[in-house]
Amino acid sequence: MTDSYSMGTKKFDEEFCCPICLDVFNDPVVVRCCGNTYCEKCIQAVGAKCPYCDIKTEFTKNLIIKRIIDESEVKCKCGVFFKRNEALQHKIVCRLEPKKCRYCAFIGCAEDRLKHGMKDHQDVILRAFTQYID
């Protein structure tokens, strides 16, 4: 998510960064052995072995960190601000989000798909337009 969205401050990214994947926590969990926080998938990927303590440990969801991250504001490259937990909804409507052409394998943002459609699928567009005005 960090390649498409900016958390706004470098300090936020550093404070809420998983030491395993080096990205902002995704489904944060706290380990019982030392109280450090990791992404749930990251700690599972290392066999629930704490990287700091080097022992297998139990973990529970870190709801406080999750709430802080989910409620933090992010900015998309398109300029729109929204809460981090609204990123999936924004991705559906974002004009910069690459999507597949419905007629071929082309993938591009909204502007590129429009240019592609006008160049490579004029017949389909004209047929649809003709049906619409009839």
From TrEMBL:
- Superkingdom assignment: Eukaryota
A single Gene Ontology MF term assigned here is: zinc ion binding
InterPro entries xrefs: Ubox_domain, Znf-RING_euk, Znf_RING, Znf_RING/FYVE/PHD
Under Gene3D superfamilies, the record lists:
Zinc/RING finger domain, C3HC4 (zinc finger) (3.30.40.10)
Domain RING-type residues, every copy? 18-54
Keywords for this entry? Metal-binding, Zinc, Zinc-finger
In this entry, which stretches build a coiled coil?
A: none
Q: Name a biological process GO annotation.
A: protein ubiquitination
Q: PROSITE patterns annotated for this entry?
A: ZF_RING_2
The record's annotation in SMART domains points to: RING, Ubox
Protein name (record) = RING-type domain-containing protein
Q: Which organism encodes this protein?
A: Stentor coeruleus
